[in-house]
User: Which sequence fits this backbone?
């Protein structure tokens, strides 16, 4: 069992061995609210252009509110984790691979055992929200609950259009320099995400048929002003997982933890408290 000693920490690194689905990986991770050694763990899964540092202080604030210990990590290709080789394209099922292979391997590397996993919560944003849903479906007995923030369960025109616009901004403005503050290899992060979302083969991607096994408490959150997805995303989750609870935030775009942190934290805290 991981037993951190400090209240906050710098990034550490976990070495994941090669498997049939991936080569050896070095994963950047960080514990927050570390002194709460006996508290349940909340695992944070970042967005498609995210990393540990892009979360800023939100995981810390939420963990303090929930009385949980937080695990934040950068997925392969992001932050200080192993970059994506520039000649490698993410496959259409890249999010399923993260839920099926990478996250369980990271938990193994950190000696997070099954009893700890059964009390664990996943909190994911955007692509990380989709991975959260997939993990909850694939590992229904290794989780206490899940929060999916602005997740994707199928591809909408608004998503593709916004991602195409982001590519133009990346290649013509200072967006690349700004994102470079958060990733050791910013092109690895950006084009890994952008290329797969703009790949015509990805247009038919959906995980709606994979959500039915979710048994744990599930909260899905969406902002009314999200330019990467509509309310159809979380409404579809409710159709597939009838016990899911939905929160729809006014005056909020694609990043509720930045756009409406107080409302988001209130919603998550209220939902988690009902499960105790």
Assistant:
């Amino acid at each position: 069992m991981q037993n951190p000693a400090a209240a906050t920490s710098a990034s550490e690194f976990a070495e994941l061995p090669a498997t049939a689905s991936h080569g050896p990986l070095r994963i950047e991770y960080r514990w927050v609210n570390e002194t709460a050694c006996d508290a349940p763990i909340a695992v944070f899964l970042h967005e498609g252009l995210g990393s540990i540092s892009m979360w800023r202080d939100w995981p810390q604030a939420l963990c303090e509110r929930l009385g949980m210990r937080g695990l934040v990590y950068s997925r392969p290709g992001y932050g200080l984790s192993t970059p994506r080789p520039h000649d490698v394209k993410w496959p259409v099922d890249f999010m399923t691979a993260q839920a099926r292979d990478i996250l369980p391997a990271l938990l193994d590397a950190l000696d997070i055992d099954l009893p700890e996993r059964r009390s664990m919560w996943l909190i994911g944003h955007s692509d990380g929200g989709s991975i959260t849903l997939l993990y909850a479906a694939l590992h229904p007995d290794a989780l206490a609950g899940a929060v999916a923030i602005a997740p994707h369960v199928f591809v909408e025109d608004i998503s593709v259009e916004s991602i195409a616009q982001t590519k133009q901004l990346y290649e013509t403005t200072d967006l690349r320099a700004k994102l470079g503050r958060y990733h050791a290899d910013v092109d690895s992060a950006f084009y890994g995400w952008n290329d797969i979302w703009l790949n015509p083969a990805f247009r038919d991607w959906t995980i709606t048929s994979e959500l039915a096994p979710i048994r744990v408490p599930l909260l899905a959150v969406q902002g009314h002003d999200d330019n990467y997805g509509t309310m159809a995303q979380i409404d579809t989750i409710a159709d597939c997982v009838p016990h899911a609870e939905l929160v729809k935030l006014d005056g909020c775009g694609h990043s509720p933890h930045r756009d409406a942190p107080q409302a988001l934290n209130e919603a998550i805290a209220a939902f988690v408290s009902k499960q105790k």
